[in-house]
Amino acid sequence: MQCPKCHAPMHTYNRNGVQIEQCSGCRGIFLDYGELEALTRLESQWGGGPAVPPPPAAPQYPAASSPYPSAPPAPAWGAPQHGGHHGGHGGHHGHQRNRGFGHMLFSS
């Protein structure tokens, strides 16, 4: 089978009973008819495990006053940034996304 986008060869994978075609060129994912419904059903089963009881309530303590001044409010979205930035998209070092249901299917 050829990729409908870039015409490279497609490879078929069977993950948890769902057939997924992936292009070896553009790495696009293509599903056969009904496979999206199967993925949706698997996701609801995967994420809908047994309910975990909530943790016990923490004891309430009076709020302590801080000896330090509070930080200034963050600038509005899109407002110019001044000071401690090194340009670009700082502050994202070491950030990892939570891995969800899709990671189980599409991991290499």
From TrEMBL:
The region called Disordered is annotated at 45-108
- InterPro entries, alphabetically? TF_Znf
Comp. bias regions, Basic residues: 83-100
UniProt protein name: Uncharacterized protein
